[in-house]
Amino acid sequence: MFTRLLRRYADLSYNKLVTNLTSTPKAKPSDLTKVPFGTVFTDHMIEADWCEDKGWSEPVIKPYQKIPLDPSSSVFHYCTECYEGFKVYSNPPHILSFRPMTNMERFVISADAAGLPKCSPHELLKCIDELIRIDKDWVPQVPGYTLYVRPNMFGTHAQLSVTKPKKAKLVVIMSLVGPYFPSGYKPVSLYCDESLIRSWPGGHGHRKIGGNYGPAIVPAEKVKNLGYDNILWLSEGYVTEVGVMNFFVLFKNKNGLELVTSPIHHTVLPGITRDSVIQIIHEWGEVKMSERNFTIKELITKLEEENVVEAFGSGTAAVICPINKLAYKGKEYNIPTVQGNCGELTKRIFDELTKIQYGKVKHKWNHYIA
User: Fold this and answer.
1) Is the peptide bond before 93 cis (omega within 30 degrees of 0)?
2) Is the same domain home to 169 and 99?
3) Are 319 and 350 a contacting pair, CB within 8 Å?
């Protein structure tokens, strides 16, 4: 069905890519340590428009600039929006990204969930690769610093009715980002409360759409004011995610060690880092890897019995984020970090993933751009 639709309407096409380079390149920051996350953008961006009766326009690489939008555009009223994010790494003489096609495939699925048009993930990635090549001088050469790629699609249909937008815009921008832990790798503390809900069965918590993240900002701030770094989200008593990351916990059972994470469903995002962790653990074959439902009651019981070995979050920004504390129903539980700032398995996974991401080892997940 999707193939037939692509034949009927114009799909996004790399072969139609138009390039319009800036004549006034920006000055690059002299000190990356003073650049806040996602505030400094490269010289160029990608822009393409879609309309219901014609399909996609030719994509254009153009100087980074503001976008004029009608105030009645559906994105402003009904959050008809989706996005993605992945990093570009420097390993001289190469620059590369980490499993970007998986991001593109997830982007297309999220667009559909937000009532937005689909596009070819392969063609979109080819366009993005060209954008990266054009702005390759922006890829940081300093260890721990990367170029963050943000594809974004949103409804531009100027109408206040609650319907699928008949017009949409695709934009890809890129930003300088530093290490998630600028002062050194360190664990975070979590706060858990059944009244704080990010996603729910039958919803769209498994998609990268803006409506899943905006409402989580205020609860996150409240938790920080209580002295904790992040939220352990629950859905009907089941543990789902931590902040904007997937959650993993290493249990000690009578039959050995079990690394557990919630399965993908309507309340859990199919994280690319999450999937990478699962594949690595299966390949190592040293501990049992389980994608299963588990409740906060099971987690607390394991903590009380001292059968939690370690825990961490996984995501694009942090890669692997160690966890050392959980607050639940007025009581704090310490989570072991035997290496001082993390668990042994946590650090081993982090090291393995970052080696692959920076191209220190050859791997099927390496995507070389230049």
Assistant:
1) yes
2) yes
3) yes
Q: What is the CATH classification number for the domain harbouring 196?
A: 3.20.10.10
Exposed, middle or buried: residue 252 (CB in 10 Å: 0-12, 13-18, 19+)?
middle
- Calculate the alpha carbon distances from 323 to 3, 54, 245, 268 in Å: 44, 50, 12, 19
Question: What is the number of domains present in the chain?
Answer: 2
Residues 268, 316, single domain; the answer is: yes
CA distance 135 to 172: 13
Are residues 332 and 303 in contact, defined by beta-carbon separation less than 8 angstroms? no
Residue 369 domain-assigned (yes or no): no
Spell out the per-residue pLDDT of the chain, length 370, in tens: 334 444 446 899 999 999 999 999 999 999 998 998 899 999 999 999 999 999 999 999 999 999 999 999 999 999 999 999 999 999 999 999 999 999 999 999 999 999 999 999 999 999 999 999 999 999 999 888 999 999 999 999 999 999 999 999 999 999 999 988 776 778 999 999 999 889 989 989 999 999 989 999 999 999 999 999 999 999 999 999 999 999 999 999 999 999 999 999 999 999 999 999 999 999 999 999 999 999 999 999 999 999 999 999 999 999 999 999 999 999 999 999 999 999 999 999 999 999 999 999 999 999 999 9
Question: 104 near 125, Cβ under 8 Å?
Answer: yes
Token output for 121: 């993930």
* Among 177, 204, 225, residue at a domain's last position: 177
Domain range for 26? 2-177
For residue 168, tell me if it sits in a domain.
yes
Question: Tell me, what amino acid is at 352?
Answer: E
Domain membership flag for residue 290: yes
Residues 163 and 200 in one domain: no
User: Would you give the DSSP letter of residue 73?
Assistant: B
Instruction: List 171's β-bridge partners, or say none.
Output: 47, 152
Cβ-in-10-Å burial (0-12, 13-18, 19+) of 368 comes to exposed
Residues 198 and 160 in one domain: no
Residues 68 and 138 in one domain: yes
- Residues 203, 41: Cα–Cα separation, whole Å: 33
- Residue at a domain's end among 147, 177, 207: 177
